[in-house]
Amino acid sequence: MNIDDLTVKQIKEIASLANVLGVDDMSNKTDPDIGKYVVVRTFSAGVHCGVLVSRSGQEVRLSDARRIWRWYGAKTLHGVSQNGIDIFHELTNVDIPVPSIILTQAVEVIATSSSAEKCLREAKWNNK
Q1: 117 with 73: CB under 8 angstroms?
Q2: Domain 34-122 belongs to what topology?
Q3: I want to staple 50 with a disulfide (CB 3.0 to 4.6 A). Which of 54, 57, 62, 94 is the partner?
Q4: pLDDT tens-digit series, residues 107-121
């Protein structure tokens, strides 16, 4: 196969296959938060944190993603994203990471500080 001989249809099929395999489309390369640890609030699936892989409209893909079920030590997600949470408080519950998740209806995507990222990665489910 000579790449110079590909038709537009064949190129579209290859691009579609790349998307199915999880290869980021080039439009995400301009998003400054791709590759950063973020906190995401969704309309109906709660709050999650993880590494932002891609974002298209309200659809967000995270890797190494955790659900923040309940937290103590910050009043809003701005505080969570910049200062972290009290990971030892009995009201704080952050679940185990999953390799990848696609969240639809994302209404906030907030990049974290390095200290908040460390805190969120270390948080555990504190059900006593």
Answers
A1: no
A2: SH3 type barrels. (2.30.30)
A3: 62
A4: 999 999 999 999 999
Task: Give me the pLDDT at residue 27, please.
Answer: 47
Each residue's pLDDT tens digit, 71-106: 999 999 999 999 999 999 998 999 999 999 999 999
- Whether pTM > 0.90 for this model: the answer is no
Backbone dihedral region for residue 50 (phi beyond 0: left; psi -120 to 50: alpha; all else: beta): left
Q: Show the CA angle centred on residue 79, arms to residues 119 and 41, nearest 5°.
A: 90
Listed by start position, the domains of the chain span 34-122
Bridging pattern class, strands 59-70 and 47-56: antiparallel
Structure token digits, residue 118: 């460390």
Residue 38 burial (CB count, 10 A): 24
